[in-house]
Amino acid sequence: MTSHALTGSRTRRSAVLIGRGLRTEPVVYFWAIGASALFGGLTVAISQVLGRVTDTIVVPALDGSSPAGRAWIGGLVLAAVGLGLALSVAARRIYAGIGLSNLQAHHRRAVTRRYLELPMSWHRAHPTGQLLSNVSSDVEAATGVFTPLPFALGVCVMIVIAAVALLSIDVWLAAAALVVLPLAVLVNLVFQKYMSPAITRAQPAAATTRSTQATAPAARRATTPPRWSSRPTVSSAMSTTVYGTELDCPSSWRTSRSRMFPVTRCPSSLPESPMSRLSKRITR
Q1: Segment holding 97, helix H or strand E
Q2: How far is CA 213 from CA 50, 115, 124, 216, 223, in A?
Q3: How far is CA 142 from CA 22, 135, 139, 153, 184, in A?
Q4: Which of 65-71's residues contact partners 24+ apart within 8 Å by CB, and which partners?
Q5: CB-CB contact of 208 with 220 (8 Å)
Q6: Domain residue limits at 248
Q7: How many domains does the chain have?
Q8: What does pTM read for this prediction?
Q9: CA-to-CA distance for 35 and 96, rounded, in angstroms?
């Protein structure tokens, strides 16, 4: 049996988990990461195109040194870059969602296949909530990193391109802008340091809650009396005969019958059926 346990440091476990997911859905994440990288590049490019169009077309047209008819060229360039930006945003979201759904389905199928291989004694020894948590909460926790992965890689591409552009313009401006990145990484590390143990402690509690929710309907069915238990019992009924058969006639039957028929009391006897009369004649 293949072992799926993650060993080593936190960084190594994270890298192994991401590598497994990318190997499981290589084509989908190729397009997701590629679209995200294109988005990062176009985000920087649109600012440069806007500045170039302003300097070469808009300002000369306002000064009168260039014909205003060239403005449509700048508009087409900006529209092309904006269209590419919009398509890259849509593509990265679509492929990232497809990849996440496929990974979760893969994990759930693997867990349920393993469940089918285990004996019934093992299933009886584990609560239902824990089994449900393994195929729901645990799968979501194992694949949660793949939701922001394409977006984060696209941001990395955008940062690299923007850093190169800033360094080509002014070194001190680039240094001031790049100070923000280590601060954001530090805040993220502090957040993970305190939240990861809390999430780990919350998993058993989630399993217990699911187990309670799964067993609650059966417990209610076992303790709730049936609806007909509040009806009158045989001891409070009057006895009558229908076609020679003993019948229980509750005291409430008279009231309900009087609403439908003009009879205000439970009859002591009922008319003899035609079949009964015919059988008596034959026996004579």
Answers
A1: helix 71-117
A2: 57, 21, 17, 5, 16
A3: 13, 11, 5, 19, 24
A4: none
A5: no
A6: 234-283
A7: 2
A8: 0.58
A9: 10
Distance in angstroms (rounded) separating the CA atoms of residues 106 and 100:
10
How far is residue 59's CA from residue 73's CA, in Å, rounded to a whole number? Answer: 14
Does residue 253 carry a pLDDT above 50?
Answer: no
> Which pLDDT tens digit goes with each residue over 181-209?
788 888 888 888 888 787 777 777 776 77
CATH number, domain containing residue 200 = 1.20.1560.10
Whether residues 177 and 262 fall in one domain: no
Q: Which two tokens stand for residue 158?
A: 């955008």
pLDDT digits (tens, 9 = 90+) for 141-179: 888 889 889 999 998 898 898 888 888 888 888 888 788
- Residue pair 98/24 in contact (Cβ under 8 Å)? The answer is no
CA angle 160, 165, 171 (to 5 degrees): 100
Boundary (domain end) residue, out of 177, 202, 223:
223
Asked if 135 and 69 sit in the same domain, the reply is yes
Residue burial 191-229, b: 16+ Cβ < 10 Å; e: rest: eeeeeeeeeeeeeeebbeebbeeeeeeeeeeeeeeeeee
Nearest to 55 by CA among 42, 41, 45, 65: 65
